[in-house]
Amino acid sequence: LAKTTQPISMDSYEGQEVNITCSHNNIATNDYITWYQQFPSQGPRFIIQGYKTKVTNEVASLFIPADRKSSTLSLPRVSLSDTAVYYCLVGEEAAGNKLTFGGGTRVLVKP
Amino acid sequence: DTGVSQDPRHKITKRGQNVTFRCDPISEHNRLYWYRQTLGQGPEFLTYFQNEAQLEKSRLLSDRFSAERPKGSFSTLEIQRTEQGDSAMYLCASSFQGASNYGYTFGSGTRLTVV
Fold first, then answer.
1. Which member of B40, B45, B98 has the closest CB to residue A99?
2. Which residue from A minimizes the CA distance to B107?
3. pLDDT at A25 (0 to 100)
């Protein structure tokens, strides 16, 4: 499993765009990049998944450069309710029991 | 179906006591996973079931931990002779077999405090 490195924490303000970069230098050819979000006292929730270039859904965008050694999760115009821990995972597209979480990035959105 | 349900939400127990947690997955999901999460860390995989078969249990933290899913529906996680180091959030998740990573649904967890 490819190891991931992401910032421990980030602060932002309401209405700003938040970008969280995850490094995964040893990503394998078949690996996908998946991001989960976790609110306090809740289980993680899937946000977005991609393999290369750019993926966008109603919640976020995921930017993956050509070498795939890093990826950036972009949260547009955050609100207070986006305060959460965001996890970057690298592995199979259907990881099953191999779904492996690192330490995550704690994002605090301030008013 | 309202998602993955875990009971209780909170449990305080004295060291040395046994505790059991229950997880009710999404009814159509045939896979069920247990994770443990300590403060400031990401969830750590413990074990998983496909229907009633426990396919991976080598990651259970010790022989004090055991899990069952007798009829392929709900599951229980038991910790015997609890220790203070067992204090954590215990999360359950479910999915279809072979589901993509977006197909996992986690419950809200059971927070265990061992005093």
1. B45
2. A43
3. 94
